[in-house]
Design goal:
The chain is 15% helix and 31% strand. The protein has a single domain (5-68), classed as Peptidase S8 propeptide/proteinase inhibitor I9 (Alpha-Beta Plaits). It is built from 2 helices and 4 strands. By secondary structure, it is of the alpha+beta class. Keywords: Cytoplasm. This is DUF2129 domain-containing protein. Pfam families: DUF2129. InterPro entries: DUF2129 (IPR016979).
């Protein structure tokens, strides 16, 4: 239904030029103070898009976001210790 998305953190030198990154994917956040952009791209085309973005003059560094790989489903296999600390 929805395409698989991959997040990237792109460190930039020029924030005005960083607005042009919207043509490569969806820009989620642009930090004016720390000069980085958080953007999401389609997972199938991510490598091609990142290769093109690396060539841009205002891009310093690109990091991949590991948010998709973080476990978000928790289980309660550890016993609850709050019952020992009753009031």
């Amino acid at each position: 239904m929805f395409p698989e998305r991959t997040g990237y953190i792109i460190w930039v030198n020029d924030l005005k030029a960083a607005r042009n990154l919207e043509k490569y994917g969806s820009v989620h956040y642009l930090s004016r103070r720390m000069h980085y952009v958080v953007m999401y791209v389609n997972a199938e085309r991510a490598e091609d898009i990142m290769r093109n973005i690396r060539k841009l003059s205002y891009v310093r560094k690109i990091e991949r976001s590991y948010r998709n790989e973080i476990k978000t489903e928790y289980s309660k296999e550890v016993p609850d210790k709050t019952q020992y600390y009753g009031l």
